[in-house]
Protein: BRCT domain-containing protein
Organism: Lojkania enalia
Amino acid sequence: MEDTTMLDGSQPLFADLTFTIIPTSLSDRVQKQLSEDISTNGGTIMPFDALNGRIEHLTKITHIISATSDFPDYHRALDLFIHVVKPAWVDACLKVGKAKNPRAYSPDPALFMSEVVLCCADIPEGDREAIEGGVIALGGQYTQGLSKMVTHLVALDMNNDRCQLAKSKKLRCAIVLPHWFDDCLKVGRRISERPYTLPNPEILDVQAGAIPPTRTSLQIREASNPEPTHEPSHTTPDAHLEPTRSIKAFEGKKIKLAEDLGLSDGLHCVIQDLIRAGGGEVTSKVDEAQIYVCNYREGADYIKASQENKDVGNLSWLYYLIAHDTWTNPMRRMMHYPRPRDGIPGFKTYKISISSYTGEARVYLENLVKATGAEFTKTFKQDNTHLITAHRQSEKCEAAQEWNVHVVNHLWLEESYARCKEQTLTDCRYNYFPARTNLGEVLGQTELNRDAVEKNFFSKNRKLKSIEAAIQQDNVPESSNLRSRVHSDPVARSSPLAEKTKRTRIVAEVVTPVAPRHIDGKENQTPGTTGSRGAKDRALLKLHNAAPDIAKFEKEMKRKGGVIHGGRREREPEVKDKIKGRESTASKRSIDEVYGEEEATEDELQDVATNNNKRAKKDKKVPIKFRMLVSKKDSWVGNHERECKEREKLRELGVYVNDDHKRVDLLCAPKVVRTKKFVAALASAPILVSTSYLDYAIRTGKLPPPEKHLLKDPAFEKEHGFRLDEALERAKQNKRHLLKNWTIFCTNQVTGGFDTFKEIIQANGGKVHQWEGRTTTINAAKRSIDFSDEEVSQNQEEDEGDVLYLISEPNKKEIPLWVKFRELAKKHDMIPRIVKTEWLLFVAMAQYVHWDPAWELNEEVIKKK
């Protein structure tokens, strides 16, 4: 035995520590190296029992080394406060000569930053401290210095020394904007770095195009369907030459297959042969079994197996064990665990469609929707309640916005199912979509919540006594059909969810005659002991009778915009609008069904075309002809009801009114106004029309030619020195790139607010930063005009290239910010120019770069005031 006694009298690094190495996902070479390193440094290794797949003498172990949390004793180890670490923890401890924090090397999927070593470059101190604390809290590591160990370098541009060093040394680290870390926190998952990677991050490119599809998440492969569609392969191709494959996951195990699986005799024999070939055994008694396989979370056997911490999974999970020859936790992948027969409370009233998911990801979400108890629809219709999407760049999302349908990401669905309870839609994580990111890449990373499943389906304190107590309390006779039905129904006896349902029915069926509300003229008479039970029953009866109305009201309140116009029409298509004796067509699109491009076959498309033609003839609808943005419509101000009605009328005529200045064909206003929407929309070169166009269409029910209602404002043109028609022609040339490569600064005190000018600058392709007087935070590089694009460059001729702009206000409080801004410009060898908001408004509306000394701000201007 090697001598581990230290010459300086100190203990070896791993003295008094006992380890077990989980062989899953680790090669023999890695296991051997880990064993040698631990033993050499004074640690003790207890071998893993590969035969049983469990850790013997778990309480005597201090550290478990595993590349994943997917092993049987993981949750029990956490309950016993045993450290579970990745193999990299051992190497890290040896390098520094002391034990590192185990949490930074945890395989826990909740610590999604565990493999991140992050460093910051030229980030403001407050932001840097927030990033440092966040990455450590989520299992990652933060380092002050740049080294080969760094996986992510957070920077605002590539001009700082650390980024240049990483580039010159060809370090294998991602150089990302701090927005990446912010979006990871908002989503609660580690998302792709691609859209945030410098020097040309996609999130800053307003013309980046469609969001690219993502690969199928590894978390849902072979775990997308709770009911397998094929039989497992139980022999090799040459069955007469080679024996049946041995499945290590079944070694020494007894498995019970539940009756609700509905296996045929042939398939039952196939599975039984595979289990026996792997050293396992099929049993008919749950008491003898270590593994219980069933379809639903109900029945005495399911409850007993779950309460005794046996492995409980469904047929899809069993097939996975067969295919991969290794054990995996059935709760790790939601489609590997039995489903609730009645779904998740509240979901039965929902109709859910999905968008931007393809292949196995689409199958997984479809099955998950059905498992919650909701109705899944391949087509997206106006009566859908929710749209689950990976990003917002799709036709379905536009339709959902128009129809007031909830648009959420898949995290809402997964976490509602995992926690056995509908999650609130007000949680920002469920309706946040990071720019240029396809959230399909983090699909399937949510695990079932063990505590929630136990509480709702196999809690030890939820017994048959609760049903019997309810029956006795309600004085149901022994001979009652209700009592005999409860005692004879095995599901009612064994399933807590069924017990809850039965109790509800009992209260509904046991009815006490309703007494008069007023007794002796007293409305609020205190009930006595004899009448209390009757009062309770009457209250319960009223509540039961009102339940449908309450459910509908709550459902309407969850809609965006709440309950408007005295309530919405019924969801059933046959319900007609009685007003004016005709079928309501308000707020419907010209295409009643929005098909996802990923699921529509040629036959379906042909059917849709035929059906849509019929609907078009019947409803006399037209497709969207114009997308209109309206600014300063006086009759709509303070009259939301009128605005909604007129928007619906315009939509029926083919005009879709929205607030997206990036996609606008008609810009409607009473005159030229300098609002955020109007100025930002000019960059898209829309047709300017007067509000008379809108009034004529609403009054006559016909769309007039836009040319007859063009917006004209000679007074504005004379005052500002440019013509609107010429400005729109320049906007077409610029293609929203007038301020491309510009970085403009803006204080927070400007009239209209920082966000207003941010939107205007970004609409023209520029970047904007809020100026708070920090001189080392943001890039201020000189601009170079792209003369290859002659159309845009001709509108940038007056750009001096080396001038740095700060939009501010003529206010004494702003002067300290000006001083710091001049320091920043000097540092980057640029000319500082502090300007009024008039400068940007002119450039954005005239659509060419221009300078007038009257727009400049300095201390002399303040003194003159």
In short: The chain is about 35% helix and 10% strand. The radius of gyration is 34 Å. Confidence is low (pLDDT under 50) at residues 1-9, 234-246, 463-533, 560-609.
